[in-house]
Each structure stands twice: as structure tokens, then as C-alpha cells.
Amino acid sequence: LNxxxxxxxxxxxxxxxxxxxxxxxxxxxxxxxxxxxxxxxxSIAASSRLLTFLHRPSASRHFFPRFSNFCLFxxxxxxxxxxxxxxxxxxxxxxxxxxxxxxxxVTAMIQGAxxxxxxxxxxxxxxxxxxxxxxxxxxxxxxxxxxxPCENHLVSRLGECHFRNHHxxxxxxxxxxxxxxxxxxxxxxxxxxxxNNPFEYWVTHPDPAYNALMEGVQNVIDHPEAHDIQVHExxxxxxxxxxxxxLQRQKAPGIAEVKQLWQDDFRNRKIVxxxxxxxxxxxxxLASMPDRITxxxxxxxxxxxxxxxVINYYEKDMGDRESWWSQWREFIFNTEVEVYSxxxxxxxxxxxxxxxxxxxxxxxxLSVEEERISLPLQVLCLAIFDAIQxxxxxxxxxxxxxxxxxxxxxxxxxxxxxxVASVLLSTYGSYEIxxxxxxxxxxxHGEPGNLLEEHYIPLLPSVMDGKRxxxxxxxxxxxxxxxxxxxxxxxxxxxxxxxxxxxxPGAVLYPGDLAAYCxxxxxxxxxxxxxxxxxxxxxxxxxxxxxxxxxASTKYPERILIIGLDANTYKVHNDQYQGVSxxxxxxDENGLISCWGPTPNPYSPTTCNARTFLQPQLNKAVxxxxxxxxxxxxxxxxxxxxxxxxxxxxAHKDNTGSASYIEDMxxxxxxxxxxxxxxxxTVSVKKGQA
Length: 690
Known about the structure:
By secondary structure, the chain is of the alpha+beta class. The chain is 30% helix and 14% strand. The chain has helices spanning 16-20, 44-54, 57-62, 103-108, 115-119, 208-222, 237-249, 255-264, 271-276, 279-284, 288-294, 321-334, 368-372, 374-396, 401-414, 416-426, 441-445, 447-453, 490-500, 541-555, 580-589; strands at residues 26-31, 36-38, 70-74, 183-190, 296-298, 304-306, 336-337, 349-350, 433-439, 456-459, 471-477, 487-488, 514-520, 526-533, 560-566, 592-594, 637-642, 646-654, 678-685. α16 packs parallel to α18 (447-453). The two termini are 50 Å apart.
């Protein structure tokens, strides 16, 4: 498809007029989702023949299996430009043919106000609508002269846009020369550092053994009768005795009570109906919390340690229970790690020492007494959980599960941080501000962080979370902001939050959830930036945003406030979950607005993920056939700012890493390693602002 320069342009149907317009000829054809490109200087007539060929079912089937949408790019006066439009056609109900006219004739065909022709320098020939499951590229609409998509004409001018190189990625100098100086490109992304389980989410896998494995596990859970043995048959009494001795050496509180719980309760439970399906264990986080902390530990210096379990990428063989159990105890009680923490204190500590009590205030299903003994109790529950999972996999797929796990880990875990950094540097390399949530310490201090630091100033939380390994941070462009002017005000905000929420249950924060900074730009503008990761139910979101707004308005009123956050907001609001509309109501009351405008759509999600049965929160598991309809599809990610300071010119969400969003697709995918979409916006400083 890569025509030699000028070859196609000399086709018999190409007139001298069209040849004369080679300077505004097509220079790129992008096929969305396949990321295939045709780049050449060819005439419009030749290009139309190419498009006609590509749109044939045979072409899309043989050359581009995921072909769904395409745009033609015309070279404007000062840069290459790209636009995504909805329901815009050259002529009603007609596809492009060889008879497509040259640029002057196309301009004459513009439907709408004649004055648009003088301001438009780009043409979009995207056929629309397209058949399901491929949606039209309606996600990103960027227009200088028209705040929304042009309703009645073909083209929109991009006074500010993003350069695309010939691979479709943004260059580092990715802002047009004529971009308005008041514009700021902002993105936020929860990169979900805790998802170290390659089996956690449903994925599309080319190996049929993957579906056989996952459906086998699902059948054990759905129809456990033949497999529902008692817990002591997978974690024996002698193994538990060894475990209690290990805990005794660590002087864990409540060992006697936990021993009694084993004898009276856990020992005789059925492994599926009595343990895995017990929703209270999930609500109390007795297995999921210690799993989160010990599953995969990112150590100082970039080393990664993994607990011997089937739900991570532990490299050693765990084919039999005895070898697994010795490795498990050695890891928890005899392995020292150095993790990132506040003040640069990286003293070695045992893996067991990373565990901390589970709080009744945070998880009300847990009793006050269970909170007191939660350290040994969660170790016991974690051992039971790991033993059950190993037993199930060795039952349904003894010869294939370790091979399948390895393939998933290669795609989703081992190269995850590098892939995240690649997306940020390529697709969003021109953005001045990038908010990140749930970043691992190794992402910040390892190779990905080093790559990002070539272009960005990293602004870190006051305290890095070395236990859960989830950290919010802010990346600001080095050529736009002054590192010497950065002032960490995270603790200042947290003090205001603490004072306001002392009597409010549920609004619990962890180290690393918030990073807030004052920083100055090279053009003299002053900013207050904050990146925040909300709790699972979103109950801490309003209190934190309120504290940020109070600090900004009372102590730093001269600064432009921008917040990037995973708000964990949901379609429906209640006492346990923060709703989208109710969060918007709070923003309205405080003079704030988001990239989603004054009426955000709760049914336009930034998450669409479905957990499998191979993870510790079985109450959240979804069957394979329901992975779309019962997915966690909620609008959780926001860019918030002051209505009096900024206005949003455009916004988009991205679950592919290439600035496009595919509806009704579960993610992470083999190419997109997070369960949250990227949210990006171009905001403009209002007149009168400093």
C-alpha cells in the first residue's frame, strides 16, 4: 500500500488540476484499531481508489481484520492535522469513489455556512456510520473555531491540535505552531499498579487452552458439588500448626483466638461454598488485602519479589502442594525486602512486616475484635485462599495452567510499566500536565520513570506507599514548568481534610493517595495541581476535593487549580457509593467543573472490566458470557478545575493507548495494561486570569 512517490498520481484519471494540488494531497491514511498506515504523496483520485479497495469486505478481512474506521489527512499550511467527526459525509449516503473531486471542488461541497470554507484547512472523509462492533470515531473532537463538531459542514479547523508523526504518535513538539498560548493539554490515568494477577480480568487470548482453563474454574465455582472438599484437605492441620508457630515468632497479637477460629470455623468449611463464596470474607478484605500487599513487591533498585501463588507470575514451579507450602512460608516469614517509603528510609524488613491491621472504620463488616487480631487472621485466610486456588488449577488444567499464566504475565505484567511509559511519551508526549494514580514505586524510580524524567518533572506524594504500592503523582513538562518553583502542599491539604472529616466514617486515606503541588510555569502563570486516587466506594472523593478547593481559594487564590483524579464515582448514588450526578452537584455548589461539562453522562464509562473467578474478591467475579453486560462500567476518572479560571475546549477518553475509545470492550487488553481509561482534555485559561 505504500505507493512510490508520484506513481499513483500519474494515473490516467488524474487531471493536471489534481496534480497541481499535490501540495495539499493526502499524506496519511490511518486505520483505527489496526494501526496500519499508508503514507505517500498521491493524488486525491488515486487515494479514492485506494479507499474504495480498502472498504471492500475482502480487503478489510484479509489485510486489516480489525478495520473499523479511517480518516484522510491533508497537509495544511503549518502542520499535519487530524480530526474525528460524527455523521459527516461528502454527500448523503454516498461513499468515496474514483470521482472524488479535487480540494477546490470538495470545498465547494461543504454543507453549511459559506464562511466555514475560509477557516477550514482540513478534510475528513470518514464513512459514517460504521457497522457494529466498531463504533465511529466520535470520541475526540478538537476544533478551534467550533467548540463542538461542525453540525452542517464537512471540515473543522484545528487552531490547536496534536502533531501526528507517520506512526500516528505525538511528537515531543506536538503542539501546532499557531496554537493559542492560553491552552493547556491535560491528561489523567489510573495505571492500576495493584493488578499483578494475570488471571484477574477476562482477556482475549489466542490459545484455546485459556478459555478451557477459565471456563473450567468457572464451572468449579458454579457447580462445586464434586469438588467442594473441606478446607483442611487442602491446607492441613499440620500446615496450620506450622503457620501459627511462624506467627508466634513474629509476636503477632491474637494467635490464640485465630487458632480457635481455625478449629471451630475455617477448618471444616467447604473450599468453594464455605470459603470462596463467603461474601463476608471479601467485604472484610481478609484475603484480598494481604494479597494486595504481598502479591508482587517492587523493591528499591527495581527488583521484584512475588508471593508463591497462582495469581501472580511466580517463576518457580508450584506443581505440588508440599513444594508450594515450603516456598510460601519462606517468602512470608524469612524473606527481607527493601521498599520505597517516606524520607528515603529503605531499611530491610520481612514481608510479614509489610502487613498492617485492617481497620473497622474502613471496612465496617469487620468487627472491632477482628480488627485487633486482623494480622494473624489475614495471614491464615491468605494461606487458605492460595491453597484452594492451587488445588483448583491442578484439578482442571494440571498440564497447561502455568504455561498460560506465563503468556498472560508477559503481556500484562512484566512489560506493564514500560508500556505505560511508552503510551504517555508517544500518544500524550505533547501534554503539559499528566496526572497518574496507583503508580508503583518501581514505576517512579525504575526505568520507566527515568524515561519520563527526560521530558517531565515528577511531583511525588509526601509519603510514598511502599506497602500497597499505590501512589499518585504529577508529571509536568520540563520546558513549560519550573522545577525550582515546585512546592509540595500535600500535607497542608491533608491537614484541612483531617480537620473536616474527623467525625466522618468511611473517608479514610492511605499514604500515596494524594499528591498536591504549587508550581509556576515559565510564562509566569501559577498553578495548584493535585492527583488523587479515591477509595473503592468514592466516599473520600468529595472531602478531598473540598479540602483542595478550600486550600486553593483561601491560601492560593492567585493559582490556577487543576485536579486529575480517579474519583471512583458510580452510576447510582447511595450511602455506600459516590454517584456521578451527586459529585457533579458538589462541583456546581463550589464553582468547579470538569472536563465532562456541567452534565456528565453517568453511562459514559471510563472503566469496563470484569473479574474472573481466579482472584480473591469472588463476590466481584463475572461469568464469561456476562463479561460485558455485568462489567464494572462507570465514569470514574475526571479532570476538575475552577469554572472561573478555565474552560474545556475538548475532552476524550482512551482505552487503546492511541487516543481512541472502543465501547463495550473489556480492558485491560493485551495492548492496554490498565483497567481505567486515560482521560485527556485541552483547557484554556479565561481572560483576566493570571
